[in-house]
Amino acid sequence: MKDRFSGHASGYAAFRPTYPADLYDFIFAQVKNKRTAWDCGTGNGQVARDLAPHFKEVFATDSSVNQIKNAPAASNIYYSVSHAEKTSFPESTFDLITVGQAIHWFNIPEFYEEVMRTSKPKAILAVWGYGLLHISPPLNEMIADFYENIIGPYWDTERKLVDDHYSTIPFPFEEFHTPEFRFSFEWTIDELEGYITTWSSVQKYIQANDINPVESLINRIKPFWLAEKVLVKFPLFLRCGVVK
Questions:
Q1: Is the confidence at residue 9, as pLDDT, over 50?
Q2: 1, 99, 107: which is closest to 47 by C-alpha?
Q3: If 131 and its partner were Cys, which of 16, 29, 171, 235 is the partner (CB 3.0–4.6 Å)?
């Protein structure tokens, strides 16, 4: 798994959007026993934090030490540094396995083997992500141009799976039909800038060119930012099913 986030883990923790309650409500409704969950590719631990009130034990793994260091603590969350495809968990451990905005970085067939090994009978796998944000027509055009033409060459090939809303990844499980989800936030322009700066492609651009391209984008956006806080929307997509 590529590590695109260790170098800016604190910014990732500060600016990454959190997921809506209706997403979790749908997932939890599919889970019969809420004893043990594994959040794989936990990053800054935002999903693990949301699982913790609903499960007796939550195990959260990530390949990045720095990401784990920025994750929130809870008495029933057990963080560890581990690759998605090979863990030390015993067989038949988990009632739910979650992956939020991370599976595109995995070796997916090998990860699925680990899912099969560590899942209890009738366990649920829930994999989700979110696409490019939307604000208003003029801002959407500026951000889309930035996304495609300025930093487009710096996206890893795995980003295409996100652009396709995970529809092209294999999912060899008993899949549920899932509703459409959206989530939104009222952000200041500084929060928008902080979020876009966390993009892996932006970090690669900065490393290659020694300049942050987000500063120029924000200067273009400022005349069209008409309030202190503006509504920012994200499309959210979910693949969810029974493992075995």
A1: no
A2: 99
A3: 235
Q: Which residues contact 11 (CB under 8 A, 6 or more apart)?
A: 194, 197, 198
On whether the pTM is more than 0.85, the answer is: yes
Locate the DSSP E strands across 109-219: 119-130, 174-175, 181-187
**Partners of 241 in the β-ladder:** 125, 175
Tell me the CATH number at 20: 3.40.50.150
Q: In this structure, is residue 1 part of a structural domain?
A: no
Q: Which one, of 212, 208, 217, lies nearest residue 145 by Cα? A: 217
119, 243 contact by CB (below 8 A): yes
* 91 within domain boundaries: yes
- Residue 211: both structure tokens together: 């300049």
Say how far apart CA 36 and CA 97 lie, in whole Å: 9
Phi and psi at 61, nearest 5°, equal -125, 150
pLDDT (tens digit per residue) in 134-156: 999 999 999 999 999 999 999 99
Range of the structural domain that residue 218 is part of:
6-242
Domain presence at residue 130: yes
**Total domains present in the chain:** 1
192, pLDDT greater than 60: yes
158 within some domain? yes
Our CA dihedral for 136, 99, 60, 7, rounded to 10 degrees, sits at -50
